[in-house]
Amino acid sequence: MIQFTPLLRTLLLAALQDPLTPFKVVPHVGVVPMVDFFKHFLMLGWFTVLYRVLGTPLLALSLSKSLSPATKYDIKRAVEQWKFGSGLDYDDHKDK
């Protein structure tokens, strides 16, 4: 399962060892796929931040009796989307 932090660590290590690595990859894969990769990489990071920063507080808020069932559902699905979209659901699937 791909997660932002290990992937970032790997990319930074590769860039430190050879700063020209991204430029060497572009001729093999093309500019459009590289831009697409970085778009997905940034979204992976964004979902990771959203889940880690807002996930627990929003799930606690979803237990509030003052919220409608529809709002509670929307909050839970948003947090779930961030969790799965960030790859942080890894432990959920270990023993299955």
Write out key terms for the chains shown.
96 residues; mainly alpha; 4 helices; 74% helix; elongated
Task: Explain this structure.
With 96 residues, the protein is mostly helical. It has one domain (4-93). 74% of the residues lie in helices and 0% in strands. The chain has helices at 4-17, 21-29, 31-61, 69-85. It is elongated, with a radius of gyration of 18 Å.
Short structural description:
With 96 residues, this protein is an all-alpha fold.
Roughly how many Å is the radius of gyration? 18 Å
Number of strands: 0
Sketch the major β-sheet.
none
- Work out the helicity level: over 70%
Terminal CA distance reads 14 Å
Shape: elongated
SSE ordering? HHHH
- Count of separate structural domains: 1
What do the pLDDT scores average to?
93
Strand content: under 5%
Separate helix tally = 4
Structural class: mainly alpha
**Poorly predicted tracts of residues:** none
Layout of strands and helices, then pairs:
Layout: H1 4-17, H2 21-29, H3 31-61, H4 69-85
Helix pairs in contact: 2-3, 3-4
